[in-house]
Structure formats: structure tokens, C-alpha cells
Amino acid sequence: MNTSYYLIDEAALRRNLEILRGVRERTGCKILLAQKAFSMFAVYPIIAEYLDGATASGLFEARLAAEELQGENHVFSAAYRAEDIPELARLCDHVVFNSCAQLRAYAPQVLAAGKQAGLRINPECSTQEGHAIYDPCGEKSRLGVTRAQFDPEVLPLLSGLHFHTLCEQDSDALETTLDAVEARFGEFFPGLRWLNFGGGHHITRPGYDIPRLERCIDRIQQRYGLQVYLEPGEAVALNAGILRCTVLDIVENGGKIAILDTSAACHMPDVLEMPYRPPLRGSGLPGEKAYSYRLGGPTCLAGDIIGDYSFDRPLAVGDVLEFGDMAIYSMVKNNTFNGMPLPSIALRTLDGTERCIRSFGYEDFKQRLS
């Protein structure tokens, strides 16, 4: 298979899902796939074996889950278009609103369809360190209703509340957040049916404190009789995929620079947005090994830089490199800036066979433009 391509490892995916299923079985919580992080629907039948359904960020993801993944279907958006509400009410079991105004306007349609309406709350409890772009509790956040803006008169429309404040964090941050949620909104829990803890829980990361997570879940379910939902995205496919690419050229300007047939800007945009340095098989930190290189993409963006790495031997044109943890926030965010081809998508099955699920060509690029 020609590079570049994403390769998802079924065995690694199932290992993550086994951990999540264990949390479900021990606590009775429900866990949904957050499609915004991972939407490779070719493996949705596998995910359906372990999880309770999926959550969407809008109409298209809601349709994808309805078509490809069995189980509950939830949706949250910072704002909905009026014309989308009838279809969302048909497709989704829970429709979560971001303001009391939209809840009042559209919840009657959701309830008339026999579905449940929820409201996202902002507990004003920031636990982020260095990731302001991902902090829903930051100053002037547009995500979630604060206690001051919460109108108790909407309670008859509500089945539950939703909060999402974490990003790649452990359960100690969840516990801190949960204290704030209870302090600000706990008085409204009686009469509700569920509380959604949102995403950002790095449950499948080595060292994650699962017992503390389960205590948080039990605390809410036992104290208030609410059904707890979790919506992890990264945890489902964490370290379950790689991005294979090839060295196209090597240039020199104050050091050696390898230009690859993959792009940070197009194929791994979180490298620039987060930012972070993705793991690369067989490499070390700059200067750690004998030969150091800056790795970048072929686009015209000067900042299309993946990172600085070192190797035991010199890189050569034609070498194939493997970046790790490329299942999450990769396929869902990639783009065709500069006419870059989209990477193919492949799956390594349990018997070790690698097969191409989907490849992309010129028409995929062209049809997006006019």
C-alpha cells in the first residue's frame, strides 16, 4: 500500500474497549463513543460489542451513528439550526442544548418525538494546565450554562445535565470538577434521570486511576439515583493507530530537514493546534541518537513542521516512518490544503493481516471545492 496511510490496529482497539467495558460492568454507567475524536465507521461493529452507543456534535455525526453503530445516539452542539431539529429528534435519544434559550425553543419537538432533552452546564471549575484552547471553563467560554445563567423554570423540559471540562486528564481532575458540579447544580438533581460526565477522560492511558473514576460514578448514581454517562473519544482509540509515511527529500539549513509525504497541517493538525510532538517509532529526542532531523510536510506552510527527532542511522529518501497514536483527531480533522492527498485508511485485523479500507484520490479533493 502506498504511503501515506493511517493503520488502525484491531487488537489495540479491543484492548482499550475491554478496559472501558470493565468500567461499565463494575459501575453500571453507560459509555458512548465520542465520534468527534474517532469516526472510522468500518470498526463501529467492533465498538458496538463493548459500548452503549455514540455521541455526536451535529447532524452529520448523528446520522453516521444512526446508520453504522447500534445503541444509544446522543448529540450536543453549541447551537442548533432550526431546520435540523426534526431530524435530530428522529435520530437521537438525547439532544443536549447549550443554552436555556435553545432548550426552550426546541426541546418541545424533542419531547414530542419521545426523546430526552438535556442541558450542558459550565461548573466554572478549570483543571486545565497549558491547554487553554481546550478549556471549556475558561474566561468567556461559550460552552455550557453557568449557575448564574441557569433558569430553574426549564427543569420540566430536562431529563439530565451534561458537563464536559476535561482534556486528556486523570480522574483526580474529574473528582475536583464533580465537587464543583454538585456545589453549583446539585440542588437540581432530584427529578432528573441522568448526569453526563462528558469526555476528556484518559481512561485507557497507562497509570490512569480507574478506581477513583469508579468512585465518582458510584457517588452520583448512589447518592442521587442518576444514570451516569461517559463520552470518551480518545480513550476508545488511544494508541490504536499509526500514520505511515515516506521520506521524499532531505535538505539542509542549519541542520538536516527531512520532507515527508505527510503533513502536520493536513494529516495531523493537533500537532500544530495542541501543540505536541507525536511519537515516532525508532526515534529519540534531538541529540539523543547519532543523527538528528527536523521532519516536515511538503506544503507551502513554513510552519508545517512535525517535530525534531534523532535516529541511530542517517535517514534516506524512501525510508518509511511510523508516527504513533494517529487514530484519534486525525482522520476526523484531516484536510486537502495545497491539494494534499488524504491518507488512505487501513486496518490490521487480529490475525495480523493489513487491508486497505478506503483510499482517496483527485475526485475527493476536487468535489470539496465546487
Automatic annotation (TrEMBL):
What CDD domains does the record tag this protein with?
Answer: PLPDE_III_CANSDC
Instruction: Identify the SUPFAM superfamilies for this entry.
Output: Alanine racemase C-terminal domain-like, PLP-binding barrel
Q: Name one GO molecular function term.
A: lyase activity
Know the name of this protein? Carboxynorspermidine decarboxylase
Which residue range or ranges hold the Orn/DAP/Arg decarboxylase 2 C-terminal domain?
Answer: 135-326
Q: Does the keyword Lyase apply?
A: yes
Q: Which UniProt keywords apply?
A: Decarboxylase, Lyase, Pyridoxal phosphate, Spermidine biosynthesis
What EC class is this? Answer: lyase
Cofactor(s) annotated in UniProt: pyridoxal 5'-phosphate
Q: What is its EC number?
A: 4.1.1.96
- Fetch the InterPro entries from UniProt: Ala_racemase/Decarboxylase_C, De-COase2_C, Nsp_de-COase, PLP-binding_barrel
